[in-house]
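Sat 14:20. Reprocessing the chain from the morning session after the first attempt stalled halfway. Input below, unchanged.
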Amino acid sequence: MGYASQNDSFLIQNGGNLMFDLKISDLFQADTISKHWATDVVSLVNPESSVQLPQPGLGVAHRCYYFHDVTEEDLKYFGPESVGYQLATPEQVTDLLEFTKRLTSESKLLVHCHAGISRSTATACGILCQHNLSPSVAIQRVLEVRPQALPNLYLIRLFDELLDMRGSLIEAVDTELERFHGRLYRELHQYFT
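Finished this time. Tokens:
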């Protein structure tokens, strides 16, 4: 399993078979990428967001999902201050997986959220696992595409459950993030769990 770099996108391969081309970005970059590069776009934004969403080019398949970049742990930690924050739902993730199951070797997928760090990278991990990459290879590829990745752990748990991965995606993300980000990840993980 591997990847081939092509400028700032990565051709995702599974055992030498080209799967699809992947970019992960923030909202600022997403408009240009969706107009001039992507064949498929997944937007992950806050429900109350007033920012201008990307306007993909003609023929680009686009799905937008509205939920906050929070986990169940965040909601518990912040208590009453977290009222109004919305977690991703299993129905949203199921719809997203339905949307991305048709990706082919000709597809150029853009996954973006506001910062391109948490929701988008978790979603990219799930999509790569859906297309038969192992969880550890999926998170490694995401970190190669987006080195600042810190996938939303609630989304990772949803993908793990819906793809019937029995905890292997959760474990791989935890292991690879600690290896990649080291002390910073351990401190963040300790703070939020």
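DSSP finds eight helices and six strands in the chain.
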